[in-house]
Amino acid sequence: MTTSFTGFNDQDFDVFSVPGLEARMEALIERIRPKLELIGAELAPLVSALAGEDMFVHVAKHARRKVNPPIDTWVAWAANKRGYKALPHFEVGLFGTHLFVIFAIIYESPNKAVFAANLEAKLKKTIKALPDHFYWSMDHMNPEGTPHQAMSQGDFEKLIHKLKEVKKAEVMCGLRIPREEAVKLSGDKLLEKVQETFETLLPLYKMSF
Question: pTM above the 0.90 mark?
Answer without folding.
Answer: yes
